[in-house]
Amino acid sequence: MPVIRFGVSLEKELLDALDGFVEENLFVNRSQAIRHLISNGLAESKWQCNNEVAGSLTMIYDHHRRGLVAQLTRLQHERNNLILSSVHLHLDRGQCMELLAVRGRAAELTAMADKLRSVKGVRYARLTMARLTGAEHHDET
Ligand code: NI
Q: What one-character-per-residue DSSP string does 77-139 give?
């Protein structure tokens, strides 16, 4: 594929951050780092579509927050078609970690993760997804 050169204007601070990123990740130059960032960013936005994916949702939350556990349980029951399995780990007296194995349309899983993350007392919620091969690509939703 032909390579096209173009100019980019950046604030000094952002450029320094980019150079740090280049160094930390052992990229050979800025171009390589920018290429990586762009393709990752675009791949992320593609998750919003209707691809069939499987993945995991990791959550960390404050067990003592009033009503939180009941709310998380209710939200998960409502989306049981997306959740294959879950593991609950009591990290210490107050904090819990919950791992959900999930499968479904990328947009649905993203929406579920956003919903669970928005519950007060959830400190961390991260969804990872892998597209299932052979799944058809639809964008009509
Ligand atoms: Ni717990």
A: HHTTTTEEEEEEEE-SSSEEEEEEEEEEEHHHHHHHHHHHHTSTTEEEEEEEEEEPTTPPP--
Structure tokens belonging to residue 54: 């499987």
**Ligand 1 centroid distance, CA of 99 (Å):** 12
> 106 and 82, same structural domain?
yes
Distance 53 CA to ligand 1 centre (A): 28
Global pTM value: 0.66
Number of domains in the chain: 2
Task: Give every strand in the sheet of 52-62, ordered side by side.
Answer: 83-90, 95-105, 52-62, 122-131
Q: Is residue 136 part of a domain?
A: no
Dist. CA 89 → ligand 1 center (Å) = 5
pLDDT digits (tens, 9 = 90+) for 41-50: 776 666 667 8
For residues 57 and 71, membership in a common domain is answered with yes
Report how far ligand 1's centroid is from the alpha carbon of 98 (Å): 8
Four-point Cα dihedral 80, 56, 103, 107, nearest 10:
90
